[in-house]
Amino acid sequence: MTRRLETRDIFVNYGEVPGVKGVTLHVDQGEIIALLGANGAGKSTTLKALMGMVRPKSGAIVLDGGDVTGAPSYEAPRHGVALVPEGRRIFKRMTVRENLDVGGVTRQRAERPALLAHVYAMFPRLQERAEQLAGTLSGGEQQMLAIGRALMSKPDFILFDEPSLGLAPLVVANVMDAIGRISRDFGVGAILVEQNVEVALDVASRAYVLCRGEIVLEGESEKVRSDPALRAAYLGMTH
């Protein structure tokens, strides 16, 4: 059975300030969707709600048809959901191997060697740097490590928050290729929050566009790419 992760009409407030207003979206295992919009549109807030890092004021977070709204964030990996956070958030004073070990703590000890081998096969550079302090890696290598750490939890879904941020174009291409391979080869569903609209639409099959906390456009990537509402959302002109 293909798993599905979704939000149903969620509203999230920060104090009295609305962050997300009635967002409904879904991602199936094995597909990549893009979540697009200008800064402050509500993209990262939506990811935080899916991870249990913020609780919706109303609406529901649903996994495989079951309501998991309000489940604490530390349970997300056990439910098969992992986050690659904005800014990578690796443990800089720990080695590459130690960072990966942290990612696998929710798995049985007997599973971890195979998971580590899988990560190293996808990112050979991490194996070369296994005993190096993570803080001494390049930006691209740190992003590989953040993705590898998420993979160590053997997720069915990975939420990527701005994975191209601060990276050179060639490195961005490598990261997007890795996201595509994770989905294609291992059946992982992905939600890709990304400022680089073109690369996001190249790798995702579907997209949702947020403006001021609301979805203003959704559909197949090519349809979204050509819709004037996409540009309008980035210019704040949809309302």
| Main sheet record | 6 strands, mixed
Report the mean per-residue pLDDT as an integer.
Answer: 91
How many distinct helices? 9
Low-pLDDT stretches: none
- How many runs of DSSP E, i.e. beta strands? 10
Q: Helix-strand pattern, N to C?
A: EEEHEEEHHHHEHEHEEHH
CATH architecture of the domain at 1-80 and 157-163 and 183-239: 3-Layer(aba) Sandwich
Radius of gyration: 17 Å
For the structure shown, list the relevant keywords.
239 residues, Rossmann fold, 9 helices, 26% strand, 4-stranded antiparallel β-sheet, globular, 10 strands, alpha/beta, single chain
Structure description:
It is a single chain. The chain has a domain at 1-80 and 157-163 and 183-239: Rossmann fold (3-Layer(aba) Sandwich), CATH 3.40.50.300. The chain is of the alpha/beta class and 239 residues long. The longest helix is centred in the last third of the chain and has 18 residues, at 169-186. The protein starts with a strand and ends in a 5-residue tail after the last helix. Strand 9 and strand 10 (214-220) form a beta hairpin. Helix 2 (96-103) runs parallel beside helix 5. It has a 6-stranded mixed β-sheet with strand order 6-7-8-3-9-10, with helices on both faces. It has a 4-stranded antiparallel β-sheet with strand order 2-1-4-5, covered by helices on one side. The radius of gyration is 17 Å and the shape is globular. The protein has 9 helices and 10 strands.
